[in-house]
Specification:
five-stranded antiparallel beta sheet
Length: 158
């Protein structure tokens, strides 16, 4: 797809992760020295009345949204991102990130696409929503069905 083909209403292709895993949550909590036990202790999650599954870190959920945007427009395309969290993502959930172009402007040599972006759980619950501003390259990367990667934003070709 070429930059000139992007119009208001163009969809950011979905980025999908089949399963948010407990091991990834525990690893990230360890790396970040995240003291919040809801990411690694099921008993604590239950004690807080939040269910019986671990809760994914919010920044990781934002990362999934970034993966969708960067896979669509390239690794150096994201200019700004504003999000709000609307629901939790739990271990075992499938997540799907995507977006829709809502506005296009020219800023010097850059063509900027403003996009409504989101992350949904597999059951359709919206977990993250926001707005991304993306500088569109003259040629967008080719689409691929290889989306179940973490945390890489690199695309593989079939």
């Amino acid at each position: 797809m070429k930059r000139d083909d992007v119009v208001v209403g163009t969809l950011v292709p979905e980025w999908r992760l089949a399963h948010v895993t407990e091991s990834r949550m525990r690893l990230l909590a360890a790396i970040l020295r995240d003291p919040n036990p809801i990411h690694w202790d099921r008993d604590e999650v239950a004690a807080r009345g939040l269910g019986d599954r671990l809760i994914n870190q919010g920044p990781t959920n934002v990362g999934y949204v970034c993966n969708a945007v960067l896979a669509w427009a390239g690794n150096d395309s994201l200019r700004s991102l504003t999000v709000r969290f609307t629901s939790n993502v739990f271990d075992g959930d499938e997540v799907v990130a995507g977006g829709t172009v809502t506005h296009i402007t020219a800023d010097g040599a850059d063509v900027l696409a403003t996009c409504d972006v989101w992350l949904d759980r597999g059951d359709g619950t919206r977990a993250v929503e926001g707005v991304a501003v993306v500088a569109l390259p003259p040629e967008l990367p080719p689409a691929t069905s290889e989306t179940d990667s973490f945390p890489s934003t690199q695309r593989s070709t079939p």
